[in-house]
Amino acid sequence: MKSKGRVRKVDKLGRVALPVEVRRIFNIKEKATVKIYMSENKDKIILRKKRHLLECMMTGEISLQNRLYSGGIVLSTEGAEKLYEQIKK
Domain locations in the chain? Predict the structure, then answer.
């Protein structure tokens, strides 16, 4: 799959707005925490959404009822059902 580039300008305070489609795909809500990394050769900026330990990877729900699976996968009941339906297709 080829990635579509998005162009955004940096404002005078050094901010860049993330496009709504990117926020939806990565389930980034208002006031979410994002880690910023720089590649070793300093030609890329990498943003990584900081996840809560109990955050469902499918729904973003944070609950003590969520289950941790091997490989660090965290799913709520609803998230597990959504994943199962996607796998069935």
Answer: 13-50, 53-89
Other CB atoms within 10 Å distance of the CB of residue 56: 25
pTM of the entire structure?
0.53
| Beta strand segments in 1-89, E | 34-38, 45-49, 67-69, 73-75
Which CATH class for the 13-50 domain?
mainly beta
**Angle at 30 (CA atoms; ends 28, 35), nearest 5 degrees:** 55
Locate 18 and state its tokens: 């993330």
Q: List, for residues 45-55, the tens digit of each pLDDT value.
A: 988 887 778 88
CA distances to 19, 50, 58, 66 from 29, rounded to whole Å, are 12, 12, 14, 20
Helix (H, G, I), strand (E, B) or coil at 50: coil
Q: Can you tell me the mean pLDDT for 57-77?
A: 90
Answer whether residue 7 shows pLDDT above 50: yes
